[in-house]
Design brief:
Largest interface: A-B, 48 and 45 residues
Number of helices of chain A: 20
Radius of gyration of chain B: 34 Å
Largest sheet of chain A: 9 strands, mixed
Structural class of chain B: alpha/beta
Structural class of chain A: alpha/beta
Order of helices and strands of chain B: HHEHEEEHEEHEHEHEHHHHHHHHHH
Distance between the termini of chain A: 21 Å
Shape of chain B: elongated
Strand content of chain B: 5-15%
Largest sheet of chain B: 9 strands, mixed
Number of helices of chain B: 17
Oligomer: heterodimer
Helix content of chain B: 55-70%
Helix content of chain A: 40-55%
Chain lengths: 491, 629
């Protein structure tokens, strides 16, 4: 049952190839969609300027390759995808793709555009041999609400295209606090993206969580509280599937921690407490004040740049608390940074339904292609398309999910929450849908699914249930049945 | 302050000299009143979570403004000099809230309709923070804190404002409406990133109202790259206006420095530079302007006085030149007379200008609101307004408030410009402009009734059943009778089936009809609301513009009157002198010489007062930011 969507979409594309036989432009589009269907899920990282998009991207990839800077940095939409050998390809608006030399400075890539101007470049594609990219293609976008209009414009054009389906399947939206610009963007994102794909597929991230409490050691706890508040926020709930606090800098440096970093922090931890605290009052003081012996200014500067004051404070506290080797420390950093939760959430919300999302994207792409083509030629294809759209259960689940998040379907509150969970609002595996322990065995799952099925049948049979709610019930029932059918026969 | 005392004595001396010239006396008394109120308001603005409250805490070194990891400040807090330390909150009194709706000439009584409740300084956070007072449920207008601090002794008053740019964009409005009463603003942005587009937009908007601005880059302790950010920000600021100063500061370091009594740390926090700026440029600037305007007033009074004395003296000392001098004076008097007349050119300019302004303002307001109405109607057409009515109301309120404040700012700018146009008719090299307060939108929307509530369109089970029954009744009867022909009972499967079908259809139709009705109702409500806003706000704006007209007219008429009277007196004095006997003449000459000496001494003192001002420090921005009224 899980495969109907993607198989159906592939079949449709095969048919389209026959129909458009000889039409080079259309075939190119079909090829593109085919690639998209076959390739990994595409997740765009978006947000206001300096929200920490590139830093988070580095953290997810596990390598400091995306360039970051104190000022505004990312100016071109950049794709990071898996490749066996590092390669950078530049796609200009006019003309064919060009290869760029792969140069790195301090580990970070340097994009030398050569004779191209940034405004003439459609996108950069970086192939990188990193395990993190194997089943996820990441897209770095320029910041929204930038002072340079064309940079913001480029991000908007990519994320909210006016005439084409969006190139990304899902969006991680970074924000520092919920700013009016954030809500505006997410609203228009939902309008275009949900209008075309019938789903809410944005995940909000409360970024730079370490800075929320002015770098105090309990900042992350505050951040979690704030994220929780935002996830209940009336304005944000219909727009994003959840809010996760992440300390991007901490996450990035946890993935790239070296023995030298650990040694430096260890030295700091050995210092006299008062002296250390005085030194760490400000980043400037930290770099300038001499000591401890063996730690020169350059090292301290790189330390504070990479970890931030919060990172160093946390590191010192952890070492004093008994952490004794870099691996352990990196592990602890990663855990506290919220990166793990974020990756889990991504895989739960997006990866588990990657097929549905990809199939959906292919169908939408095909639809817009058909709209532009001559009518009689594509008539049979149109029929098939419509059949797939209405029959594929995944699509209907996505649609219901969007409806549930955006305004409800007329069920009681707790029923809507349950429906949301059952159609995969918190993740697509049966255990998650049923709200069970992830380790639950097939017996437990089948039992829970059966009881859900019965309960929802009762709701559906209630004559007072409204038509919209009834449709929702049917989809929920079908999801329950699907779960039961997928359980291998244990009898 | 010694400065103020010196100016006060100067003005008092001038009052003693004016004798029976009531017009001049009134002017000087106004000046004296102005000297009595030394407060200089500095409002701290910026996006939320930039460290505004902490900045103020660090400035006065006391936790007067609540600081939190989540959005903290919801109510503006005023910090000023006072001993002992105390705090009050301002809440609207229930009976008095309507009384001050009538437009008054001056917003002199801002506390009318407000009640002052003393609270303990420690409990203040419960009143002004989002945590203690979520969404300002306690309905507090402002909080005031008095602290004994050297920094505040010069009359400096610091206002903490709720951050702008959040979801409650009403905060932006509250902040903008508070700006016209401020002498200067401090714009705070933290060192984590350079200015964003919304920040610059807000700064531009705010600078139209209050052009005297200092920027602060906060939290420099946290970000190693703050120097880079400061450079970037300076670049952005130079694009807005030249000479906007930027002060990188760290509140954390300052508070630590105060705790440890560490001057080096204090130096490093960047606060000394900011405080010096507040003292020298903002408080000092305000004082300089005060001094300049006092000097100007006294000087012009001495000129008026000197004119009559000089002409009399001339006539006494040089009797044969008297007729020519009188002719010259008469011609000048005629000119002044022309300015005084009702149909003087400047009067026409003023009347025409105000007429145009009112028409333009009405058009502008209607145009803005019509655009909102159109947007609202599209939104209503696209969905069911019932369930989302609360959100919708909020949106409508915010966008109308924003539109109205835009219109006000715009009207204020035009009114100032008009006053300048009128002033050009006066040949005197420097005519003081009247103080106009139009941009203040506080309370403008109060008389507008709230948008009415609407049912959310959900049907209860009983209603559903009733609607269904009503529809199915006909079906059952019809088919029951029809099938009765074939000998079936009235209630049989066929008739029941038809009843169900028809009932369902009726239910669906009813739903659609209700939706349509709700949409129509919502549109009517929106239209009514917009009409109401246009009506009420238009009236208020018109009233204010009339007041502006009156104030401007009175202001300039007074100037014309003064001229006229001085010249008349000069003519009379000269004529009298011509007819004086020789013995009396010598006495009179002596008398006049003495008086002239006093007047000239005063004039010199006034000039000195004006020239004390190091001219390069008075930039045009500081000059226009200080209300003179």
């Amino acid at each position: 049952m899980i495969d109907t969507g993607i198989a159906g979409a592939a079949e449709l594309l095969r048919q389209a190839r026959e129909v458009f036989h000889g039409d080079v432009a259309a075939l190119a589009v079909v090829d593109d969609l085919d690639n998209r269907l076959a390739g990994p899920l595409r997740v765009a990282v978006a947000g206001m300027v300096k929200a920490g998009k590139s830093t988070l991207l580095n953290a997810i990839i596990g390598e400091e390759i995306a360039p970051t800077d104190a000022g505004e940095c990312t100016r071109i939409v950049t794709w990071y995808r898996y490749g066996h050998t590092p390669r950078i390809t530049l796609y200009p608006f006019v003309g064919g793709p060009t290869s760029l030399p792969v140069t790195r400075e301090d580990g970070r890539l340097v994009f030398s555009l050569g004779e191209f101007q940034a405004e003439n470049v459609d996108r950069l594609v970086v192939d990188w041999p990193s395990a993190g990219l194997r089943n996820l293609t990441l897209i770095d976008t320029p910041g929204i609400a930038s002072l340079s209009q064309d940079v913001s414009g480029r991000a908007t054009a990519f994320l909210l295209p006016e005439d084409a389906p969006m190139a990304a399947d899902a969006v991680i939206y970074l924000m520092r606090h919920l700013h009016a610009s954030d809500v505006r963007f997410l609203e228009s994102f939902k309008d275009t993206a949900a209008g075309q794909s019938g789903s809410v597929n944005a995940l909000a991230v409360l970024s730079r969580a370490d800075e929320i409490g002015a770098g105090r050691i309990d900042s992350l706890i505050s951040a979690a509280v704030i994220a929780e508040r935002y996830s209940q926020d009336q304005n944000l709930r219909p727009l994003a599937l959840g809010v996760v606090p992440v300390a991007g800098l901490l996450a990035q440096s946890s993935r790239t921690m070296r023995q030298a970093d650990f040694d430096a922090m260890n030295m700091l931890a050995q210092m006299d407490r008062n002296q250390r605290e005085r030194m760490m009052l400000s980043a400037d003081r930290f770099v300038r004040t001499a000591g401890p012996a063996g730690l020169d200014q350059a090292t301290k500067e790189s330390l504070v740049n990479r970890f931030g004051l919060f990172g160093i404070r946390l590191g010192v506290a952890l070492i004093r608390g008994g952490t004794s080797n870099p691996t352990e420390l990196a592990h602890e950093f990663a855990r506290r940074s919220g990166l793990g939760v974020l990756l889990d959430t991504i895989s739960r919300l997006f990866q588990t339904r990657a097929d549905a999302l990809k199939a959906r994207a292919a169908v939408v792409g095909l639809e817009s292609l058909l709209r532009e083509s001559s009518k009689e030629r594509v008539e049979p294809l149109k029929g098939a398309l419509e059949r797939l759209q209405s029959s594929a259960h995944e699509f209907r689940e996505l649609k219901l999910l969007a409806a549930l998040r955006t305004g409800g379907v007329g069920l009681a509150g707790e029923q809507e929450a349950e429906a949301e969970r059952l159609v995969g609002g918190r993740g697509s595996t049966p255990a998650l849908r049923l709200g069970l322990d992830p380790e639950a065995g097939p017996d437990q799952i089948s039992q829970a699914a059966r009881s859900c099925l019965n309960r929802w049948r009762l709701i559906a049979e209630n004559p007072l249930t409204e038509p919209a709610a009834l449709d929702a019930c049917r989809i929920v029932l079908r999801s329950c049945e699907g779960m039961l059918a997928a359980i291998p026969a244990v009898r | 302050m010694a400065e103020t005392a010196r100016m006060t004595t100067l003005v008092e001396q001038a009052i003693a000299l004016v004798g029976d010239r009531n017009d001049l006396r009134r002017r000087l008394e106004n000046t004296l009143n102005r000297l009595g109120d030394p407060s200089v308001r500095v409002i701290v603005v910026g996006e939320f979570k930039q460290g505004k409250s902490q900045l103020i805490n660090a400035l006065v070194n006391a936790p007067v403004c609540p600081v939190d990891d989540d959005i903290a400040t919801t109510v503006p807090t005023v910090v000023r000099q006072g001993d002992p330390a105390s705090a009050v909150v301002l809440v609207p009194t229930h009976e008095g809230s309507r009384a001050d709706a009538s437009p008054e000439g001056e917003a002199a009584g801002p506390d009318s309709g407000l009640e002052r409740q003393a609270v303990s300084l420690n409990d203040l956070a419960d009143y002004v923070s989002e945590k203690g007072n979520p969404g300002n449920a306690k309905n507090i207008v402002a909080a005031e804190v008095s602290l004994p601090r050297k920094l505040l002794a010069g009359g400096l008053t610091i206002v903490d404002s709720p951050g702008v740019g959040g979801l409650g964009s009403t905060h932006t409005l509250t902040t903008l409406t508070a700006l016209p009463s401020a002498h200067a603003m401090v714009f705070v942005s933290d060192a984590s990133q350079e200015y964003t587009e919304p920040e610059m937009r807000f700064l531009g908007q705010a600078m139209r109202v209050s052009p005297n601005v200092a920027c602060v880059l906060s939290k420099t302790d946290l970000y190693p790259t703050w120097r880079q950010i400061a450079d970037l920000d300076k670049g952005h600021l130079s694009g807005v206006a030249p000479d906007i100063p930027l002060f990188p500061v760290s509140s954390e370091l300052r508070l630590q420095a105060a705790r440890l009594q560490d001057t080096e740390l204090n130096e490093e926090s960047g606060f000394p530079a900011l405080i010096a700026h507040l003292r020298n440029h903002i408080v000092g600037g305000a004082a300089r302007i005060q001094r300049r305007s006092v000097g100007h007033d006294v000087l012009s009074v001495t000129e008026h006085l000197g004119l009559a004395l000089h002409s009399e003296l001339g006539a006494l000392e040089n009797p044969e030149g008297t007729p020519r001098m009188i002719a010259g004076l008469k011609a000048a008097k005629e000119d002044a007379d022309a300015l005084r007349k009702r149909f003087a050119r400047w009067q026409i300019t003023l009347n025409d200008g105000i007429g145009d302004l009112i028409a333009d303002m009405e058009y502008d307001l209607k145009d803005r609101l019509r655009r909102i109405q159109r947007e609202a109607e599209t939104a209503i057409d696209h969905g069911d307004p019932g369930p989302a009515w609360d959100q919708f109301t909020q949106w409508l309120e915010q966008s109308t408030a924003a539109a109205v404040s835009e219109t006000f700012v715009w009207t204020s700018e035009r009114a100032q410009w008009l006053a300048g146009q009128v002033a050009e008719h006066f040949s005197e090299e420097e005519v003081a402009l009247p103080a106009l307060k139009v941009a203040d939108t506080g309370g403008v929307l109060d008389p507008v009734a709230d948008l009415q509530a609407m049912e959310d369109g959900r049907l209860g089970p009983l209603q559903k059943v009733l609607i269904g029954m009503r529809g199915s009744y006909g079906g059952v009867l019809m088919f029951g009778l029809l099938t009765g022909i074939f000998g079936m009972a009235l209630i049989n499967p066929l008739s029941v089936g038809a009843g169900l079908l028809l009932g369902r259809k009726a239910y669906r139709e009813e739903q659609e009809a209700r939706l349509k009705r709700r949409q129509a109702e919502a549109k009517v409500l929106v239209r009514k609301q917009v009409d109401d806003v246009v009506f009420q706000v238009g009236k208020q704006l018109k009233d204010r513009l009339r007041l502006v007209q009156r104030a401007t007219r009175d202001h300039f008429t007074e100037i014309a009157e003064e001229h006229h009277r001085s010249l008349t007196e000069s003519v009379a004095a000269a004529q009298k002198a011509a007819a004086t006997y020789a013995v009396e003449r010598d006495l009179r000459i002596k008398e006049i010489r003495n008086q002239l000496k006093a007047v000239e001494a005063l004039g010199k003192a006034a000039q000195q007062l004006q020239e004390d001002v190091p001219t390069q420090l008075i930039s045009p921005t500081t000059a226009s930011a200080v209300p003179t009224g």
